[in-house]
Here is the input.
Amino acid sequence: MPTYLGVDYGTKRIGLAVADELGIALPLGTIPGMDFSDWLEEMKRVLNERKVDELVIGYPIHMDGVVGKRAKEVDAFISELAKEFNLPLHRVDERLTSVAAAESIQGKPKGKKKRKPADGRIDATAASLILRDFIDGKGA
Here is the structure.
């Protein structure tokens, strides 16, 4: 099985997940997003360190199926990745993955106060959900 890197694009943070040899998607962490100049160097480091064969990028489509402004930002991000890395790129519909990621991290809130998870945990978990959807869809 190839090594897949799941990516949840963001301007502040890019969530990452990796699929192990069994095809299980695991949150990996985050790297700085497009607002930072060093995001590409960090992406290179992760791809080399993890020996990634293919990239799986969450693609934000509106609930009504319309491709909006955010999806156009992801298209620009994908173009940058395609220019820099000679790897297959897969777009995966990511509707509601961030919501599902937040719910899986926070669980059911106890009492009235909701605790916010540490920065990046939602992004990395969302990337793992995107990657899991892709792997499940391939029948891997």
